[in-house]
Automatic annotation (TrEMBL):
InterPro entries: Glyco_trans_2-like (IPR001173), Nucleotide-diphossugar_trans (IPR029044)
Alphabetical list of Pfam families matching this protein: Glycos_transf_2
Taxonomy, superkingdom: Bacteria
Gene3D superfamilies noted in UniProt: Spore Coat Polysaccharide Biosynthesis Protein SpsA, Chain A
Membrane-traversing stretches: none
The protein's name in its UniProt record: Glycosyltransferase 2-like domain-containing protein
Domain spans labelled Glycosyltransferase 2-like: 10-176
GO BP: protein N-linked glycosylation
Length: 244
């Protein structure tokens, strides 16, 4: 392991029943980032969210990689919970979280690192998905995502174009806001960004597109309804409560 350089970036990777070969994909991405950011020490935190089918050989292989921590959370609580638990043990000054298969590749990680280095007034960076990404989504996910974008502009900020891309970056000083979120599911990021906007924290974005190898899964109506309820609780209902 590399111990001579201080950890400056932590990459948190929520994980739930990943596809076979996920540890090899992660190894490839680690090698890419080592080449793209040779002067930066990066730690990788795999936050397992109660997976039921993890291959022990994959986990064993994971633990042979440099600067990798495997955090085994036994109960499946949701992506928001997995990210909170992962960031809780992160040591980096910059913390970036994305999915275990790096669906947008490694370039957005490099871009985020550059933004934080060049702009001291920026404290949070989100991924902004392009039109091609949405064209490849299953119909229900596409409609839900487009509807969520519209609601974000109404209830959050008209300048926030995308809350649900699976990659975000933040300075360590923003961690208390992450830990203060209560939502465990996908829309926890709406809650987080709402908190940051209300505090006037500097926010930027990087444009992202999905790798050609990514296969998009569909959401059930039960999941879509649950996320719609969570969104209403975070935005509309909490807003009414704060006005009382």
């Amino acid at each position: 392991m590399k111990t001579e350089k201080q950890v400056t970036i932590s990459i948190v990777l929520p994980c739930y029943n990943p596809a076979p070969g996920w540890s090899r994909i992660l190894q490839t991405c680690i090698c890419e980032l080592e080449e793209k950011l040779p002067d930066v020490t990066i730690e990788y935190i795999v936050s397992n969210d109660g997976s039921t089918g993890l291959d022990s050989n994959e986990v064993d292989h994971l633990l042979t990689l440099q600067n990798v921590i495997f955090q085994d959370n036994a109960v499946n609580e949701g992506k928001g919970s997995a990210i909170r638990k992962g960031t809780l043990v992160a040591q980096g000054d910059i913390i970036i979280y994305t999915d275990i298969d790096f669906p947008f590749g490694t370039d957005p990680v490099v871009e985020m690192a550059q933004i934080f280095e060049q702009n001291p007034d920026c404290w949070f960076v989100y991924g902004n998905r392009n039109s091609e990404y949405f064209r490849n989504l299953p119909l229900k996910r596409k409609l839900f995502s487009k509807g969520l974008q519209l609601m974000n502009r109404i209830f959050l900020n008209k300048h926030i174009t995308d809350t649900q891309a699976g990659i975000k970056g933040l300075r360590r000083e923003v961690l208390p806001e992450v830990q203060d979120t209560k939502t465990n599911t996908f829309v926890f990021e709406v809650e987080l960004i709402r908190k940051l906007i209300r505090k006037g924290i500097g926010i930027d974005k990087v444009n992202v597109s999905a790798k050609p190898s990514i296969v998009f899964t569909d959401f059930s109506m039960k999941v879509l309804f649950r996320e719609a309820v969570n969104f209403a609780r975070i935005t509309i209902l909490s807003g009414l409560w704060s006005d009382l």
